[in-house]
Amino acid sequence: MTIYVDIVLLENLCMNYIILFGTGYIIKLKIKHLRILASSFIGAIYAILAYAGVLPLYANIFVKIILSICMIYIAFNPKNIKGLIKELVVFYLVSFALGGCAFALLYIVRPQDIFMKDGVYIGTYPIKIALLGGIVGFTITYIAFKVAKSRMSKNELIYDIKIKINEKELVTKVMLDTGNMLKDPISNNPVVLIEKNVLYDILPKELLENTKDMLGGDFKEDDDIENEYRTKLRIIPFTSVGKQNGMMLGIKVDEVKIITDVDEIINNNAIICVYEKEFSKRKKYFGLMGMDLLERREKVEK
User: Fold this and answer.
1) Domain boundaries, the chain
2) Percent of the chain at pLDDT above 70?
3) Residues 6+ away with beta carbon under 8 Å from 278
4) pTM over 0.90
5) Which of 52, 28, 24, 56 lies closest to 40 in space, CA to CA?
6) What confidence category does residue 182 fall into, taking pLDDT thresholds of 50, 70 and 90?
7) Do 185 and 238 contact (CB within 8 A), yes or no?
8) Which residues lie below 8 Å from residue 238, measured CB to CB, with a gap of 6+?
């Protein structure tokens, strides 16, 4: 069977380009097409040398890894070892997905004149099979990374939380917000934002529906409910997009327990703030907490 070097070069050049482009696109690197093309060309030359039997050393796995590192440096020029390892891992994942799709298409087409030499598949199968396999492999890998990233960035940051006040308990879900730096300005105690709707189980309706009046200092002296919680009320200042010098009503609770996969973190000095709107339209969580609450375990105030 006659094998044309230019066809082998073109096929591997296209496949390498798809793999490198997919790597950069998935991890949001700056794409420079000339650098990727040069790197792809180096990989294509290796394929020809491997097939021709020139320098058999190129066939061992160690040199293949060195070649992959060189291709990554040529295409993306990583700034440190951490970046190199990340790009190399994604490069191999995309390669495996691309190869699997290409082999699946070859299995369906079943070309008769195809064989492998020194790890390189050679044959007269249409180049469109290789390209289609590369595109499908890239698409599958991209979707998998997007789904995995979404689950890691959201689901893994959602915790069960138990709030206790005046012998009443509420169990709900909150999301860890690393940008939440809210604290009581006087006691420096951590603050958890909880939707008003879920707080009706542990706080009086009269209190929750008059938060604005309380922020303005409007207390009814003969209201037993307000008097019961008056020593627990806090005014928490905050700043957000579109609103400067805002105020939220905070309530000092008896205990906040964060339930993690490893243990339970108890804080007896936390404050919950009443949030008027919803955090999640899909009802996945009903509050926000900061990192400070995960890191601090405090004793009951005396």
Assistant:
1) 5-155, 166-295
2) 70
3) 195, 197, 286
4) no
5) 24
6) confident
7) no
8) 182, 246, 247, 248
